[in-house]
Amino acid sequence: MCLKKAISLNSDNNMTNNKTRKTIAVIYVILTFITFAVEASTPESKNRSVYREYIRMYYQAAMQQQRKYKIPASITLAQAILESNAGQSYLAIAANNHFGVKCNSWTGLCVYKNDAGQYCCFRKYLDVSDSYEDHSRFLKERPFYEPLFKLSDTDYKGWAKGLGRCGYANDPQYASKLIRLIEDYRLYEYDREAKGESPASTTKNTIRP
Hints:
There is one protein chain. The protein is mostly helical. The protein is 61% helix and 6% strand. The chain has eight helices and two strands; from the N terminus they run ααααββαααα. The protein has helices at residues 2-41, 43-69, 73-84, 90-95, 128-140, 156-166, 174-184, 188-194, and strands at 110-115, 118-123. Helix 2 (43-69) crosses helix 5. The protein is globular and about 75 Å long.
């Protein structure tokens, strides 16, 4: 009789333990799903997704500009992401202007928008590729950017700091923001690929189509 009771109690304990393990497993799965959903819905996660898609779309255009003008592809991409909010800004949508280039002596199409409290004229392009080309020429043809072209086209830190010193943007953190973007998304790999060194296609975590 005692033996039967012992067996019964042992069986009950096993069933209880199995139910407990299953309950814990279900709770773990639910918590994991909730954590993933929350992280995926954060602004930072959304930005990362948008940034990655932008890079996939335009890294080749940036490398083409590097080969032609010796401007690091990483700098071009990082500037475009910052200036156009990864292609989502008003200027990018309405004018294909991904670098915030103002009209100045421009004789082509233009749009107007408020900039730091002033109503300013900005260049408008028929295609995003025209914006990338004009941005390179904008840097290449202005004397105050001339020192940058003495740097290596893989020296993204030197370029970022130089653009900050030359006043490309009013933001005092402009250079550090460029560098952070380049390093977070490994954009420097495109500099090497454009130069024929260490192709980015063979490098882990480099963003590709």
